[in-house]
Amino acid sequence: MRRLLVAEGNASAGRRRIAESAGATPAESYADVLRAIAPDAKVDICTPADEGAMVPAPLDSYDGVAITGSSLNIYQREVASLRQIDFVREVFARAIPMFGSCWGLQLAAVAAGGEVTLNPRGREVAFARKIILTDAGRSHPMHRRRSPVFDAPAIHSDVVTRLPQGAIITAWNAMSEVQAAEIRLGGGVFWGVQYHPEYRLHDVAAVVRRYGETLVVEGFFKDLSELESYAADLTTLETDQKRRDIAWRLALARIFSTKGCGCQNYRTGSPARCADEGGLTHDLQRRLMSEEISQIWVVLGKMIRLSGHLQRLADIV
Known about the structure:
The protein is of the alpha/beta class and 317 residues long. It is built from 11 helices and 11 strands.
């Protein structure tokens, strides 16, 4: 049985605040996604931001580590961030494969010698638009089956401004020059993205509501009423994926014509037709995020196999 560890990026106060609006902490939601993708895997959660936090099992017993987003700003050098930097360096040192979203990418970059700052272009909210795969990204297994240009759920105001030596940028867009990257340190490998492949539309709606007045002040919404209407549309679309009118209004309509619906046949590369031909689309939620959600498991699976090879090389060197 494969064993995976989800590292929560938030300190206790941040976890409570997010759970109140989203119904679960980021690590709990992330773990649920991984369990849905790989029901035979054992998925644990740890909180490395907390003082004295313990990993549920010996770190070496895990086949892979996934790192969530966070409300922390790593350049503030708060103790909750510094503890996580130490944790990620330890995972790198043990050559355990890692995958991370948003904060996870920033954390791995800093742990390996890179830099993260406040984005001078502003905040990226709800969806990162027109993410473009680089030449390296188009052939990178992290983006298997991804179209060369795509949108993805996102919420962040910080960006990686300097990658560690030897890191590879695999995706970018107008808001961030590093939307995805591969980072290596010693015998360890990290693959990560600035966006949130684990998010459902419900999670995006919760984020928008949680930021509330901040998004109004920053000009994303005219007022809180408009913000709530946007969030309500996201929630409705998650529960009723035939609402093409909402998808069009939220600039998600192109998903209806995206090749591959994300059903089991598509994820496994089967030539069979979609397993469910009902409605205007087969599961809008999966068509929006299926590549990135399944990517988490694909990435960790490939990296689990890769880590054994890397460890053997490290032993020789």
